[in-house]
Write a structure and sequence with these properties.
Rossmann fold; two-stranded parallel sheet; two-stranded antiparallel sheet; 2 domains; 157 residues
Length: 157
Amino acid sequence: CFDDSRRGRICQNLRQSCGDFALRRGGGEFAYQLAVVADDALTGVNQVVRGDDLLYSTPRQIYLQRLLGLPQPMYCHLPLVSGPGEEKLSKRDNLISHQLGGCKGREGELLWNVLKFLGQAPPLGLVGAGCAEILQWGILHFDVARVPLTGGELQVR
């Protein structure tokens, strides 16, 4: 079992739910479960915030962390966001510039909508602001308890 900062206590019997799981792929590469555990430990990750689609991978990662004597980060799983057509949105979709300081207009509006989608109630006064200002507000005011338990469609115009 582990405590997710948004969903609470999550328990999974690995033997029943997945049994043995691969640590190496057929081509010899390390599998995701082991790779992410090693990478997080080597880079000092102490908080993992990611989508609900990875919630039930977490017990496998914690199991490996314990076997290897590695620290366990804090976990928080957020609802999945979909765009038009109910397709999952991700960072690969590049909806918001990686250069947040200079984005305005549509990107700023989208970032404001993301905060609203996550239950954060950004002030209307931030509509039309630059991404850096909206992001700063989000950092100062973000409350994980306000994040809804279910995902949905993000309004993208």
